[in-house]
Amino acid sequence: MEFEQILKLIDHVSASHLESFCYEGDGIKLSLNNKIAPVIVAGMQGQTVAAPVNKTASGGGFSSVEKSTDSNDHEEAFQAESNGNIVKSPLVGTFYAAPSEDADPFVKIGDKVKKGQVLAIVEAMKLMNDIESDFDGEIAEIYVENGQPVEYGQPLFCIR
Description:
Layout: H1 3-15, E1 20-25, E2 28-33, E3 38-42, E4 48-52, H2 71-82, E5 85-88, E6 93-96, E7 112-113, E8 118-124, E9 127-132, E10 137-142, E11 149-150, E12 155-159
Antiparallel strand pairs: 1-2, 2-3, 3-4, 5-12, 6-8, 6-11, 7-10, 8-9, 10-12
């Protein structure tokens, strides 16, 4: 399944009243869930694309994603839609929102942050890597959940 086809599928599911949708085939597993903030599209070779959900007053729904063959155009559309500064994962690994299982998360939506402040941890090859803010502002969105695998360059936070 091509990236363009995945985006069309997201649009079609968005237009329907489905709460969730799963597809497996051609080495791709696609899961869309209307109850979770990010829509995760996992594909071959561990590639993951996060599409933000448009949170409407009627209870939510999937947002449409800019259709483009160029990944830079897609990223620009993602940033324009988020209307803020995006903190991306600097490496492939596992995202952790808190320093330990029983600890509070480093940040929550609405928290004020300063440049250099630790926002999360990405574990890669048993090494814990602090993810620091590159911006001053307020956490507007958190695109990944605790314990979720992340890819290089994947958006993690939106800071406004």
